[in-house]
Input
Amino acid sequence: MTEITPEQARAIAAIKAAPEKAGLTQRELSRMISNSHSVVQKMEDGTQHVRVIHLTAIASATKTDPIKLYRATLPFKECHDAIPL
Output
């Protein structure tokens, strides 16, 4: 398995947390974002690249602010330099 970078780890944590907080299983989320269960599973284990379109769909399905979800994937300093709070 490929080593997961800190950026990837943040993205994985964010895409795992949003559905958990919304009370959705991987299968429920996969249906809501029109993706296969295996794609969601692979995003969560770091073997599938997470794209902005995935983050947007996950945010919509979980009723999460997409900007907050995207910010969660950025390094703290970079996030606050790039996107004012």
Observations:
- The mean pLDDT is 82.
- Helices lie at 6-22, 26-32, 37-45, 52-62, 66-71, 76-82.
- The two ends are 36 Å apart (CA to CA).
- Residues 24 and 33 are 12 Å apart (CA to CA).
